[in-house]
Specification:
Distance between the termini of chain A: 46 Å
Number of domains of chain B: 4
Largest sheet of chain B: 4 strands, parallel
Number of strands of chain B: 8
Largest sheet of chain A: none
Number of helices of chain A: 7
Number of helices of chain B: 27
Strand content of chain A: under 5%
Largest interface: A-B, 26 and 32 residues
Shape of chain B: elongated
Radius of gyration of chain B: 29 Å
Oligomer: heterodimer
Chain lengths: 111, 576
């Protein structure tokens, strides 16, 4: 009996396996910019983002994925940033977000 | 030495772009050449600009440069006159006194030469004194030199005392000499026996010639290259050669014209407030010259331009740092910022465009104030980015991503042209600077909101009430030193209240510390700079700190006890 197509599918499980991901770049980034670990994920950076206002660019998502070793597409995504620096002014943890954006671009340029 | 200098200049000139070469050719037969000659005398010899920093420091540099120059030229004339007015090479004088001992004396020359030697020696003594106590010359900190510089420096310091010793000993042996070398020689003659004097004279002359040789061999490779490089730099600058956003051959003239005097160290707030002392322009130029510039050094700079104002050689320090960043960081990528295509969220249809800029969008009170001002003046406005727009491109340019910045420049230029505006007002000095310098906007007048508001007030379109408040004004770097706008914001403030000037003001104003040009210092360090600046501003006794830059406002408010307001806010509050 053929299954009835209700228009729903089961989403593929989405899990980040830190044991399997290559954390070398992530470690390098955190080594150069240890303050990134102070991020509480509030999303202020993303809320004020000039590029985020125009596109789906989400700085919080990009740097969180990068820290967990999920580099795919991160460089391309990071290149949407215009480096205007508003995120740095609103960060409640005082993270040098512009520095982080530039560092991610520098480290992941060859991915 | 001359071969090395000629080789350097030749290769730099050879590598100049064809535009620059055309500028030189056009400039040579013009008035610029004469002006350059004048500037060479006043700067390379007399060091007028250092006198403005500190008179004693100026005297030290002048006595060394001008004194030595006179010593060489008068010495040459002396030699020429001794040789019966035959042609003598310029270096003929150096050991003249050693070889030509039996000639008749010419007291006028001897006196002049001694006077000049004393003049130079006073400079050397001051230089020694400066090592011990630099504050006497208005310098809190001096340059830490590389060992190559130290060798050349020591040689230079010993040249003149050695010359004094050598000439005095010769005078002791053979007579002659002026009031200095002659009387010293006579005194030596009285206390020592001639055989000893003979040996000492030989040793002194040898020492003198070693110092001189060492100095001249080291010159093209040490900081003393500036002695010769400043001259072509002055000429080329007069011919309107400038450094650009990409590194070029003209940069070499600027870099090697740096004398590493260290005057740029004291004004640097990274040094003053944070104690960072290895990134200042002097070290940046040195590292770049010897090819060991690191990204960390190039990046750690507020680009506030305080050092550039003080630089006695007038080197374009900010531009050089920018094009270094470009070399290190620029990544040409055609696919970047594809999303800009077809984007247009602007509103309105006025001939006056208003570009808030990213930072003004983050300080909505400034934006509301501008809305009130436009409304009160009855201006129909085209709002470029009230509902979100594209960055002006300057932050990317400041971080070295010049090609990416071009995309933003292109996008915004097209947007402005499409809407046919004739005036473009912005309340962000960062945007203002890039609009004026990198945008090609024919038929569009670019104004900072301080200039625009002043026009409205002066033309009577914006009636304001004079209030009883006292304000102090913080000069934003990009507006003041960057764009030369000092008077307009002050005139606007004085139209609505009393203005009190802080200690460091106008071209010497401090930077708020949050400059987009610096991605190296931490949040805490930015805050410390802001606190130091606010302290100075609050010392004026004003109730409100006024600035004309949304970024400065954001930075200062963190350190302030009282209120920090944008210029537009205080005007909007005083509309009649």
């Amino acid at each position: 009996m053929a299954a009835i197509n209700f228009g729903y599918t089961i989403s593929k499980p989405r899990a980040i396996d830190i044991d399997r991901n290559n954390l070398r770049k992530s470690d390098e980034i955190l080594h150069e910019m240890p303050e990134l670990q102070a991020c509480i994920g509030c999303g202020s950076c993303t809320a004020v983002c000039t590029a985020g206002n125009l596109t789906s660019f989400n700085f919080r998502k990009v740097h969180t994925l990068v820290r967990r070793g999920e580099y795919e597409g991160a460089y391309e995504e990071m290149n949407k940033c215009m480096l205007c620096g508003k995120c740095r002014l609103v960060c409640p943890r005082g993270i040098n977000t512009r520095g982080v954006a530039m560092l991610i671009k520098r480290k992941l340029g060859d991915f | 030495m001359f071969a090395a200098v000629a080789w350097k200049w030749g290769s730099w000139l050879w590598r100049l772009s064809s535009d620059d070469r055309r500028r030189i050719l056009k400039g040579i037969p013009s008035l610029a050449t004469l002006q350059a000659v004048g500037e060479t005398v006043s700067e390379s010899l007399l060091h007028r600009r250092i006198f403005r920093v500190n008179p004693l420091l100026g005297y030290m540099h002048m006595s060394l440069a001008f004194g030595w120059f006179l010593l060489i030229s008068v010495g040459w004339i002396e030699t020429v006159s001794y040789m019966g007015f035959r042609w003598v090479p310029l270096q003929g004088h150096v050991f003249f006194k050693y070889f030509a001992t039996g000639l008749p004396h010419k007291p006028v020359f001897e006196f002049t030469m001694d006077l000049l030697l004393l003049f130079v020696l006073s400079g050397v003594a001051l230089a020694w004194g400066k090592r011990l106590y630099s504050r006497a010359m208005g310098m809190r900190r001096t340059t830490r030199h590389a060992w190559g510089d130290r060798i050349a420096l020591s040689a230079l310091w010993f040249i003149f005392p050695a010359r004094l010793a050598a000439e005095s000993l010769t005078a002791a042996l053979y007579g002659g000499g002026g009031f200095l070398t002659g009387s010293l020689g006579a005194a030596l003659d009285r206390v020592a026996d001639p055989a000893l004097l003979g040996h000492a004279a030989t040793a002194a002359w040898w020492f003198y010639s070693c110092c001189l040789g060492l100095f001249f061999v080291g010159l093209p490779f040490s900081r003393y290259m500036h002695i010769f490089t400043e001259i072509p730099l002055i000429f080329l600058r007069r011919y309107r050669l400038r450094s650009g956003e990409k590194e070029g051959a003209f940069d070499r003239f600027q870099i090697e014209a740096c004398s590493r005097c260290g005057i740029c160290i004291d004004p640097c707030q990274l040094q003053q407030t944070l104690g960072i002392d290895d990134v200042q322009s002097v070290y940046f130029l040195r590292d770049r010259r010897y090819g060991r510039l690191r990204l960390a050094t190039a990046n750690n700079c507020l680009m506030c331009g305080r050092c550039q104002v003080k630089c006695p050689v007038g080197i374009d320090l900010n531009t050089l740092r920018l094009n270094s960043r470009d070399t290190m960081r620029n990544i040409p990528d055609e696919r970047r910022y594809e999303y800009l295509k077809g984007l247009d969220r602007s509103q309105g249809a006025g001939k006056v465009g208003y570009f808030a800029g990213c930072m003004t969008l983050l300080t909505p009170r400034t934006l509301r104030a501008m809305e009130r001002i436009f409304g009160a003046a009855g201006e129909e406005v085209w709002w470029a980015d009230r509902e979100g727009g594209v960055c002006c491109g300057r932050p990317l340019k400041l971080s070295g991503e010049t090609d990416s910045a071009r995309k933003m420049v292109q996008y915004n230029t097209d947007l402005f042209r499409k809407h046919g505006i004739t005036t473009l007002v912005t309340s962000c000095p960062i945007c203002l600077k890039v609009f004026r310098e990198d945008y090609d906007l024919p038929g569009i007048e670019v104004l900072h909101h301080s200039e625009y508001i002043l026009r409205l007030i002066r033309s009577g379109r914006l009636p304001v009430i004079y209030g009883a408040e006292r304000y102090t004004y913080h000069d934003p770097c990009e507006l003041g030193r960057g764009s030369g706008i000092y008077d307009e914001p002050r005139a606007v403030i004085e139209a609505v209240g009393e203005l009190l000037e802080p200690a460091s003001t106008r071209e010497h104003a401090l930077c708020c510390g949050s400059s987009v040009a610096n991605t190296a210092i931490s949040d805490g360090q930015q805050l410390r700079i802001a606190q130091a600046v606010v302290q100075e501003l609050e010392a004026t006794g004003a109730e409100t700190i006024v600035t004309a830059c949304p970024l400065c406002k954001k930075a200062l408010v963190r350190g302030a006890k009282g209120e920090v307001r944008d210029l537009a806010e205080i005007v909007a509050a005083h509309i009649r």
